[in-house]
Design a protein that fits this description.
CATH architecture: Alpha-Beta Barrel
Oligomer: single chain
Strand order of the largest sheet: 1-8-7-6-5-4-3-2
CATH topology: TIM Barrel
Number of strands: 8
Length: 299
């Protein structure tokens, strides 16, 4: 299968990245991050999450962030909305695309959201109905597709029905997430081979964490399977609370560098992206998780 000419990156740093950071961050700094990412040419930015700040304190102020960011035409500014209340709050804040998530592992679903996979999917039905009525697009996530901290191995055959359920429910795209970062390139190719029998490859995306240093290899393996949409996080923001020492999402800078080397267009200015990652890393007082950024800094 030939490599794609263009790949779309879904920037999850302001949401999936920041929600796992220990250092508090102000609304103003979140706004600056999103605006920096817009200026760098990201076409899809997950800005925040409409969940109770009691459970995810870093996502407090998401409505204020949406009100203050400079939204550019042609760029999608999305938010996570795990329940109907979150969806309604997101729409009230002007959000036009939301994301929902389910797990491929029953053990993870029970530990993380206190219900079965089946019950979690049922919770999305009123969201999907409201989204259709209001013209809001919905993107789906499936977590633990290549391993679970509680169950261990997760088979591709377990992932496929969950991805299909989200797709059949109305999610225009389903992102398959290696939440604890244990997957390998071989696992990844087989995952997309099995899942694509039930969900078209054009509607699938990859979401890889770099715990075992395999994220870029898994991105390349996905490209070989005809996947051209990838979630990533500027400066490798975030971590995984379920895997000790996990490094979190693959850094957007590193994915862009890989894609550029393969002649695949992203529409992203790597220099501006690196600057955005350096700025937010400095604000957080954290190590920049992008190897590309660290290499450029050393030059």
């Amino acid at each position: 299968m030939p490599l794609p000419q263009y790949a779309r990156l879904v920037e999850v740093g302001p949401r999936d990245g920041l929600q796992n950071e220990a250092q508090p961050i102000s609304v103003a700094d979140k706004v600056r991050l999103v605006d920096d990412l817009t200026a760098a040419g990201l076409s899809y930015i997950e800005v925040g999450s409409f969940v109770s700040p009691k459970w995810v304190p870093q996502m407090a102020g998401s409505a204020e962030v949406f009100a203050a960011i400079g939204q550019r035409a042609g760029v999608t500014y999305a938010a996570l909305a795990p329940n109907l209340r979150g969806f309604e709050d997101a729409v009230a804040a002007g959000v036009r695309e939301v994301a929902v998530f389910a797990a491929a592992s029953e053990a993870f679903s029970q530990r993380n959201i206190n219900c079965s996979i089946s019950d979690s999917l049922k919770r999305f039905e009123p969201i999907m109905e409201a989204a259709r009525a209001q013209g809001i697009r919905v993107r789906g996530y499936v977590s633990c597709v290549l391993g679970c901290p509680y169950q261990g191995t997760v088979l591709a055959e377990q992932v496929a029905p969950v991805a299909k359920a989200l797709y059949d429910m109305g999610c225009y795209e389903v992102s398959l997430g290696d939440t604890i970062g244990t997957g390998t390139a071989g696992d990844t190719r087989r995952l997309f081979e099995v899942v694509s029998a039930q969900v078209p490859r054009e509607q699938l995306a990859g979401h890889f964490h770099d715990t075992y240093g395999q994220a870029l290899a898994n991105v390349y393996a996905s490209l070989l399977e005809g996947i051209s949409v990838f979630d990533s996080s500027v400066a490798g923001l975030g971590g995984c609370p379920y895997a000790k020492g996990a490094t979190g999402n693959v850094a957007t800078e590193d994915v862009v560098y890989l894609l550029q080397g393969l002649g695949i267009d992203t529409g992203i200015d790597l220099g501006r992206l690196v600057a955005a990652g350096e700025r937010i890393s400095g604000i957080l007082g954290r190590h920049n998780g992008s190897r590309v950024a660290r290499a450029r800094r050393a030059q």
